[in-house]
Amino acid sequence: MTLAEKIAAIPGGEGWWHSDGQSLYEELAQDLVARGYSEGDAVDLLASAYGAAAAEFGD
To answer: Domain boundaries in the chain?
Structure first.
């Protein structure tokens, strides 16, 4: 699975509400990987942040 596919899977079955959200997360993941994170760790971190934001806003 590519990094973009892993990011696309973060929000689950309903997908991203806005395409720019997915694009931003892809850019953040690429930046984290460039800083030395593994792809898995970058995706895990971003998925945790997504989950926290979704919970805060009632999803």
So the answer is: 3-56
